[in-house]
């Protein structure tokens, strides 16, 4: 592909991403993969260039752009060399007209910018949400002797954390294939450390998803004890057993829950768990470095729904913790409605609990918990609160 053809390809991809964002369709990475699957003529360098152009445009536009071309013209506004490729020759995009619409520059849609600012995220803190994320991995102590770590990594503040350049093909390494390492953001690793899971305990991961945090808990427990991974999404939960087998975490039990019936299905653990982790569904504002188009999908109504789900799951979790046990609530969000506000609401509803903010090597106090942010901590954005039942 010529440089101009790559720009036109990125514009076509952006049109699909914008359409999907408006209709809550597929994520950008899947759209890009599917687009190239039907275009075998594009080589690896072409795919990389088109992908980078598309994501440059996605990160540059705060509001949902009118079109892929308008989004790309936002990038052109700061890159005259890119604008020179709009020649209309061959497969290059048509020349630029002086009056063409250009997508506005911004961090996020206006309402979200205001919500973030109200939560103390503005200026450099907000801009860092759209930086490119590093590649973090967690050393799995259950398999540590199986293979050496890949070269080129640096230690992070997480107990078993290592960081590699974003382009590292970590999944091709022996360490990954043998379960010695798991891809996991440093912030996510610290959230698991906040649980303080120990060998022999009964621990419940109430919103396990595909099990990334469950695997970290299994390693912290040295593979000994009772570890229940729950979720209401069958497809996501089914990904955990093969991951657990590769990681040597044979003690994990998966449990598919029916939405709204979680407490009844977990009745055998009522007031019996040493620790419950609530990694609740959320807006994902802390993960925009990896999924920048997600900010185009979020609406005020969706945020309200997430907050309601989080409150309900916290109430369910409270009934599972034994006296003296702990409940750890985390969201990958920087909005107080999904963080400090939720923690405050939980304590107001449940008098028999006290907040015990986790002691971690990163993060800043926020309400009765702590907050990790890309700008201050170099991690994804997280809110982490820890409560102890009296």
How does this structure look, described?
This protein is α/β, with parallel strands linked by helices. It folds into 3 domains: 3-106; 135-182, Alpha-Beta Plaits (2-Layer Sandwich), CATH 3.30.70; 194-389, Vaccinia Virus protein VP39 (Rossmann fold). It has 16 helices and 13 strands. The strands form 2 sheets. Strands 5, 6, 7, 8, 9, 10, 11, 12 and 13 form a 9-stranded mixed sheet that branches. The chain has a 4-stranded antiparallel sheet with strand order 2-3-1-4.
How would you classify the quaternary structure? single chain
Number of strands: 13
Mean residue pLDDT: 96
Strand count, sense and barrel status of the largest sheet are: 9 strands, mixed
CATH fold type of the largest domain: Rossmann fold
β-strand percent reads 15-25%
- Distance between the first and last residues' Cα: 65 Å
Taking pLDDT < 50 over at least 5 consecutive residues as the criterion, the unreliable ranges are none
Helix/strand-derived category reads alpha/beta
CATH class of the largest domain: Alpha Beta
Summed up, the helix count is 16
Q: Name the overall outline.
A: globular
Number of domains: 3
| Computed Rg | 22 Å
The level of helicity is: 25-40%
Helices and strands in order:
Elements: H1 3-22, H2 28-37, H3 44-60, H4 68-76, H5 80-83, H6 110-118, H7 124-127, E1 135-139, E2 154-155, E3 161-164, H8 174-177, E4 181-183, H9 186-195, E5 202-205, H10 212-220, E6 226-231, H11 234-237, H12 240-247, E7 252-256, H13 262-265, E8 273-279, H14 300-318, E9 321-331, H15 340-349, E10 353-355, E11 364-366, E12 369-372, H16 374-377, E13 382-389
Parallel strand pairs: 5-6, 5-8, 6-7, 8-9
Antiparallel strand pairs: 1-3, 1-4, 2-3, 9-13, 10-13, 11-12, 12-13
